Amino acid sequence: MTDLLPGDKPETLLITLSGKDRPGVTSSVFTALSGAGVEVIDIEQIVLRRQLILGILVTAPHNAKKVRAAVEETAASLGMTVDIDRGAGDNKSRRDGRSHVTIIGTPLRASAMAAVAGRIADAGANIDRIERMARYPVTAIDLHVSGADTDALRTVLAPEAAGHGIDIAVQPANLLRRGTRLIVMDVDSTLIQGEVIEMLAAHAGYEAEVAAVTAAAMRGDLDFEASLRSRVALLAGVPATALDEVYDAIVLAPGARTLVRTLRRLGYRFALVSGGFSQLVDRLAEDLGIHFSRANELEIVDGVLTGRIIGPVVDRAGKAAALREFAAEIGVSEAATIAIGDGANDLDMLNAAGLGIAYNAKPLVQDAADTSVNVPYLDAIMYLLGISREEIVAADAEAGFVTPAPPIG
To answer: Which of 140, 162, 316, 379 could form a disulfide with 348 if both were Cys (CB 3.0 to 4.6 A apart)?
Structure first.
């Protein structure tokens, strides 16, 4: 408590120091303030390229001049500049309507940041804090924004993402971003590069035909189940050993293993839900340490593919149903799930999830998803979850993994 004379009112001061960072700056400032009997209301501090900016909001007693003198003397001894402004209260009015706006660019240009900041201001919102999540191999920036509805921000920022060739994800700032979550991923052209059915069709001499039908189905031009059965029929007579050859040729999306191992350390659960084939998807799940998998089963008789599927087809509705089933099994709400996919077959799953991410997806899917990631690194999705590249590299180093060093700059 501060001692006020009758009729005195406490004065709110915003103290901002800036200058070269060094050990002991924050300690020195608060030592000076402690002698003036102030009450600390809010603190923000950042260090950028060894330059410190420290903001402290305090309620000063009647001897505000003593506070100013103490802080100015300390700043001078540290070789730093200081600004002291009068204010009123804390910044509670800015705390309503809080969102995280994550921006990913390769590169991220000043013009794009200007456009994003402008639209946030137009929406009546304020950028309270800015954090760098990554600088290599993409630049990722997280903005803490308050004062506007999350959906409204998403709407006004979507055109800027398209116009500037960047990815922008807008999410509510709530506990779900930090809690244990279930991540459900598509496989073909999401977790892995390419389409497995096309690789199998190459063994039957129908790769081009199957590729054309697959592309149409992923755009949403064809009924998925009918198109899948017609494509699988072309695989009749292919030896089952081709499945092993295809599996050995599968190339994971860059960052896939990093994504899984990092989030598993944090308690996340994973599922693969695919319109592809269980003979391959289940093996991928086992290889990567993924908890659940759901896919179509190819019929094999006497060591040969028959061109038929056993059981019901995992289609759009089947993928969404699998997401709900896995979430219920581990006891998390649908709001705590994340779905990642690229094709029309993923739309129901993306809509069912708390956060639906279109990953290098078809235009139809990008328009329907909560957000899009169009860089070729699956682990960039972690930046949307508030996990920085520096944290990922540090965790890998502790576990004995070696990650590429970023360029100097």
So the answer is: 316
